[in-house]
Design a protein that fits this description.
- The structure holds three protein chains of three kinds.
- By secondary structure, chain A is mostly helical.
- Chain A is globular, with a radius of gyration of 23 Å.
- Chain B has a domain of 63 residues.
- Chain B is built from three helices and no strands.
- In chain B, helix 1 runs antiparallel to helix 2.
- Chain C folds into two domains: 80 residues, Four Helix Bundle (Hemerythrin (Met), subunit A) (Up-down Bundle), CATH 1.20.120.1200; 40 residues.
- Chain C is built from seven helices and no strands.
- In chain C, helix 1 runs antiparallel to helix 2.
- The longest helix of chain C is centred in the middle third of the chain and has 25 residues.
- The chains are: A mainly alpha, B mainly alpha, C mainly alpha.
- Chains B and C meet through helix 1, helix 2 and helix 3 of B and helix 1, helix 2, helix 3, helix 5 and helix 6 of C.
């Protein structure tokens, strides 16, 4: 038994490739927990960042700087009454949020957090991710239809039209990246997520800089399409709160609503990780060839620990700046404790064995985090599109540009 | 239990095919008739992929072509359905009787 | 990698597929039929994976479940089918239709029981890790012409659908 557990660690394969069911379960569990924590963190961060962009403070009451706000929200949602409209289609209404959550989490089995840190490496990785994440539109349509109410139905119609349209632009952008991966001796590309990152490693460049500006244009197309695909601002017409109340989840409340919330954020992380894998070099650290050598390896391997130390320092500055009133004593102590925990994690990450193992995961997460920050930034700055404008952008701009980029990439790949 | 052979897959495909035929022949709603046709096409696909396990990859190629066909068929069929619904306010096949006297 | 618990997953997936098929043709409400069809399509994708055809499985998910079925649901919601759900669902010749289909089923059973020997026991060794590449080589090699015709077919279908569905062109 112990042999079964340890034999995987020496094998340098993903659990799926090694056929090790136990480790596959461990990975699934870890990814599930990590995602849940990331969604909770995103909940807090989005409110804080949006608030600071609009010169507000955001949540400040529950815990120091509102750090416990997501926990309070989760509690509130769990004990809220779960209303089902009398005229709703009971079975479909019940299934819709589960379906959305299932699709949102299923895609993560092929996300490569490192050369061996994926549940499995499918031969059709990218296709699988695009396909399964496009299934979430079915859940949205189910929710909108089953509510048996006007706003959700309109939201669902909009959502299905929008997601089907933008999927095409997304697919074209992905194909041009896959085409770039075929520039090797054998001349065959790959759809596997790990294979795509390894192709970037072999060609010594991230695909976003390949055939400048073709890779960049493809990346921008994908970045626009992925915002539309996850129904986020400025393409959040399916849930446009000023016109449709809340769109497809108007009739949902309590725990079911929170499932939609969870699915939305994990879908955002999923499409971001496709973008990171295809264009931003996946788990590779910045400048792997330019700044190579032992010293630079050491410097870059210190980054994970330094990040946590930086966050800890940030928390301690907050402690110092807390008002000196006795009323704030518990909050100050909480923030100091939080900072201490962050600092401890940072110190653990400095230890050489941990440092080497955590590297890939760290760089992948940092890139995804930057992408998530962009999502919040879009939401804070762009006004919402009108529906015909949205369709125009999808069909008349992104699609022709995508086809053009694809053809030019093919030409460049043959002649350069 | 006995190992799964090609025949097992063929039996499943046959069951789906028969269900699709029943749907096409007995239902009145055009949408369900179109969906039954999808069921039939899928049964064919399962057969082709199961055969590709015996005789090589060509079966998979053909099943991809069948999926392409299905997409084209669904688009045109639903287009006809919308045009029909706009004219007659119904989606029942046995009310498409302009040519019937 | 060797697949795990093949027998169990085969019976699970094929059971779900057939169950979905039965629901498609018996539900009154077309939305329920469409959802049952999605169940069938997804279980078939699972069966394709078990048959070492990952690319077909991926295409099945992205095109059928993610594309065609969304189109179906979109149209069902666009044309309000409230009324037709309350009407008689089966046409007048349903007895004849079912009988014909069952006869077809009996024919299938006879053929499969009689022709068991036709299917060789040993299975072809399919490349699992490079399935997509092999499919692509065949698609852009031997079947190039058919591939081009398929793209033409899609173009015709796009134009046809627009002509049919648009009020004023």
């Amino acid at each position: 038994m112990l042999d079964y557990i340890t034999s995987y660690l020496k094998s340098d394969l993903t659990p799926g490739a090694a056929g090790n069911v136990l480790w596959a379960f461990v990975y699934i569990l870890l990814i599930f927990l990590g995602l849940s924590v990331a969604v909770i963190a995103m909940n807090w961060l989005e409110r804080k960042i949006l608030a600071h962009m609009q010169v507000r403070l955001g949540p400040m009451r529950v815990g120091p700087h509102g750090l416990l706000q997501p926990v309070a929200d989760a509690l509130k949602l769990l004990i809220k009454e779960d209303i089902m409209p009398a005229e709703a289609d009971k079975v479909v209404f019940w299934m819709a949020p589960l379906f959305v959550v299932m699709t949102a989490f299923t895609v993560f089995i092929v996300v490569p957090f490192g050369p061996t840190h994926a549940v499995t490496d499918m031969n059709i990785g990218v296709l699988f991710m695009l396909g399964v994440s496009s299934l979430s539109v079915l859940g949205i349509v189910m929710a909108g239809w089953a509510s048996n109410s006007h706003y959700p139905l309109i939201g669902a119609l909009r959502s299905s039209a929008q997601m089907v349209s933008y999927e095409i632009a997304m697919g074209l952008a992905v194909i041009s990246a896959v085409l770039m991966s075929s520039l090797n001796q054998a001349g065959t590309g790959t759809l596997s997520m790990i294979g795509l990152v390894q192709a970037q490693q072999a060609q010594h460049t991230w695909f976003v800089f390949k055939f400048f500006p073709l890779g960049l244009i493809a990346f921008v197309i994908f970045a626009i399409a992925m915002v539309a695909e996850t129904n986020r601002a400025p393409f959040d017409l399916p849930e446009a709160e000023s016109e449709l109340t809340a769109g497809f989840h108007t009739e949902y409340s309590g725990f079911r609503w929170s499932l939609f919330f969870l699915a939305e954020y994990s879908a955002m992380i999923a499409v971001s990780s496709i973008a990171v894998t295809l264009w931003l070099g996946g788990w590779m650290r910045p400048f792997p060839t330019w700044l190579s050598g032992e010293t630079w390896d050491l410097v870059f391997s210190l980054f994970p620990g330094l990040t946590f130390i930086f966050l800890a320092v940030f928390a301690f500055v907050g402690v110092v700046r807390m008002p000196k009133h006795p009323y704030f004593r518990i909050q100050t102590m909480g923030l100091a404790g939080f900072g201490a925990v962050l600092g401890l994690i940072g110190l653990v990450l400095f230890a050489p064995p941990v440092r080497d193992r955590i590297q890939d995961i760290y760089w992948f997460s940092v890139k995804v985090a930057v992408s998530m920050y962009m999502y919040i930034w879009y939401r804070g700055t762009f006004p919402r599109y009108r529906f015909d404008q949205l369709m125009k952008v999808g069909w008349k701009i992104l699609l022709p540009v995508g086809i053009g980029v694809l053809i030019l990439t093919a030409i460049a790949g043959v002649w350069l | 239990m006995a190992p799964i052979t090609t025949l097992h897959y063929l039996v499943v495909a046959a069951a789906l095919f028969v269900l699709g035929v029943v749907g096409v022949l007995t239902r009145r709603n055009v949408v369900v008739v179109l969906m039954s046709i999808e069921l039939i096409l899928n049964a064919v696909n399962l057969n082709l992929v199961a055969f590709s396990r015996i005789w090589g990859l060509q079966g998979q190629i053909f099943s991809i072509f069948v999926i392409t066909d299905a997409a084209a068929e669904a688009a045109v069929g639903l287009g006809i359905l919308i045009a029909f619904f706009r004219n007659k306010e119904t989606v029942n096949v046995d009310e498409v009787d302009l040519l019937k006297w | 990698m060797q697949p795990v618990a093949t027998t169990f997953f085969f019976y699970l997936l094929s059971g779900l597929a057939v169950l979905g098929g039965i629901l498609v043709i018996t539900r009154k409400n077309p939305v329920h039929s469409a959802l049952a069809l999605i169940l069938t399509l997804l279980s078939l994708a699972g069966l394709y994976l078990m048959l070492y055809a990952p690319f077909v499985a991926g295409v099945q998910i992205i095109l059928y479940a993610g594309g065609i079925m969304v189109l179906f649901l979109f149209v069902i919601m666009l044309v309000n089918l409230e009324r037709s759900a309350k009407e008689e669902q089966f046409n007048k010749q349903w007895i004849a239709g079912t009988a014909a289909a069952l006869a077809l089923g009996v024919l299938f059973i006879l053929v499969y029981t009689g022709g068991k020997a036709l299917f060789p026991e040993h299975l072809a060794q399919l490349p699992e890790q490079s399935n997509t590449q092999e499919v692509a080589i065949l698609l852009y090699g031997n079947y190039m012409f058919a591939f081009e015709i398929a793209s033409l077919l899609l173009l015709v279908a796009i134009i046809g659908a627009v002509v049919m569905a648009k009020k004023r062109i």
